Hints:
mainly beta, eight-stranded antiparallel β-sheet, three-stranded antiparallel β-sheet
Amino acid sequence: MITALTVAVGLVAAIAGPRPATAATVTASVNASASKPLLLSMLQDLDLGTVTLGPGVWSNATVSLSQAGVLTCSSANIICSGATLVAQYNVQGSNQQVVRISVPNVTLVNQSDSTKTLVLTTDKPASVTLTNSGAPGTDFSIGGSVTLSSTTTVGTYAGTFNVTADYQ
């Protein structure tokens, strides 16, 4: 009788099967942010003006044009003259978003002798905050500086650079 009872209890347990586990629920927050695509436009090229090299042997004279358009010639060995222009750009996108500005340094090539170069170190904003959505956008300027010496080859130096704008 004990054997029949054990088999009967075993059959009832097998038919009933294991009890299903109770489900667990967790709530998660979801956020989505939509931004307008950035539109970057060039408004004006960069021009450091004319630099006249002085006599003698010297080095490390710097010509710089700040983002604000202030021209500085760091040495009595050079004379800076002529019209200067900062490069100007306009960026459009979503209001109050911060946009990171990237500009590499530039190799300028002497247009009379392509073996002679100068390096333009750019002066750019790290970022700009868009003050409106879409047009008219936010303008920003880029300046730069070059280092000259008494051995700098005379001539017109030119180059190009890429400006990149990304949302932060």
